[in-house]
Amino acid sequence: MNKITLIIALSILCFTAGAQNVFITKDAKIIFNSSTPLEDIVAESNQATTVIDIEKNVVKFSVLTTSFKFRRALMEEHFNENYMESAKFPKASFTGKIVTPVDWKSDKSIIADITGTLTMHGVSSEVTVKAKITPGKSKIAASAEFKVTPEAFNIPIPSAVRDKIAKEVTIKIDAVYAPFQQLP
Amino acid sequence: MTKKKTIRLVLWIFLIGLIAAFGSIYYVFNMPRRNVSGENAIYSLQAKQLISDFRNDETIATKKYLDQAIAVTGEIKSIRTLDNHSMVISLEDAMEGVSCTVDSADVVKYGTQLSAVKIGINATFKGRCSGMLMDIQVINCVPQ
């Protein structure tokens, strides 16, 4: 075996060995809700990519802001152009550590604290999220719900529409992870 | 013109203006979603080219392609159906290639064309580029 083949074989081995701790999905669901009695403002994206490393207890999330779908096209336009400024900041992301110890070998659901940095609209902010995690050998399910304020991410809401948009935006997350190498 | 006639005329103009104003507000409020399938693709390119453009410089590529109607051609590496019945077809690489999402309504509308979509064949999808995560995402896709 020549050297190059050996190096390639070794790196593949290292990669797959490392990858056993990594679970991934590219179809995580994020629901964004800032409804008030005056206006229903709900958006959904089914295209968040997220990775969970069960050895390091690290979770990473990212989503393209233009992938959110609203009830009205006009809402989508306002969301992307006026509030999120998607052309300038196309992604929102989260990197966090699972603080509560999780027994990844069990298959019982656990409510765990995840602390990390949420970045959107070019602003990073520390958040702690309570997530329900259901470990498993072939898949891991996770869901979470938390609130953020537009002001924390430097997203100004014009006073004319202030009453129509909730002061706190609820973000709901649903993800089912598969082992890294098994994604079809 | 008598005074009565002038008042009448003003009232008519006012009424027409009012209808036009309400009409345009109603239209803007309920404007249809952008339909990329009816647009000409600004860029028609190989998925490999799109991938290398984004890998070389994501910022420049994002500026160039974001929100543009593009037609991407490449080898199908994976086909998935999501919970909301939309379909995701990955070109060139299942993980880090180009992911084309066909909305559930279009999955029905283009059913015959999509049934021919198989792993390993070459296909072209037209949609709106929404940027790169691990893969480059093209949304609101229709098969070509």
Q: What number of structural domains do the residues of chain B give?
A: 2
How large a portion of the residues of chain A is in β-strands, by DSSP E? Answer: 35-45%
- What fraction strand of chain B? 25-35%
CATH superfamily of the largest domain in chain B: Nucleic acid-binding proteins
The name CATH uses for the topology of chain A is Lipocalin
**Coarse structural class of chain A:** alpha+beta
Radius of gyration of chain A: 19 Å
Features:
heterodimer; A: 184 residues; alpha+beta; Lipocalin; 2 helices; 8 strands; elongated; B: 144 residues; alpha/beta; OB fold (Dihydrolipoamide Acetyltransferase, E2P); 2 domains; five-stranded mixed beta barrel; 39% helix
Descriptive report:
- The complex is a heterodimer of chains A (184) and B (144).
- Chain A is an alpha+beta fold and 184 residues long.
- Chain A has one domain (22-182): Lipid/polyisoprenoid-binding, YceI-like (Lipocalin, Beta Barrel), CATH 2.40.128.
- Helices cover 15% and strands 45% of the residues of chain A.
- Chain A is built from two helices and eight strands.
- Chain A has helices at residues 3-19, 73-83; strands spanning 22-33, 42-53, 58-64, 91-98, 110-120, 123-134, 140-148, 169-179.
- Chain A has an eight-stranded antiparallel beta barrel with strand order 1-2-3-4-5-6-7-8.
- Chain A starts with a helix and ends in a 5-residue tail after the last strand.
- Residues 8-17 of chain A have low confidence and may be disordered.
- In chain B, strands 2-3-4-6-5 form a five-stranded mixed β-barrel.
- Chain B has two domains: 1-31; 36-143, OB fold (Dihydrolipoamide Acetyltransferase, E2P) (Beta Barrel), CATH 2.40.50.
- With 144 residues, chain B is α/β, with parallel strands linked by helices.
- Chain B is built from five helices and six strands.
- In chain B, strand 2 and strand 3 (87-91) form a beta hairpin.
- The model of chain B has no long low-confidence stretch (mean pLDDT 91).
- In chain B, 39% of the residues lie in helices and 32% in strands.
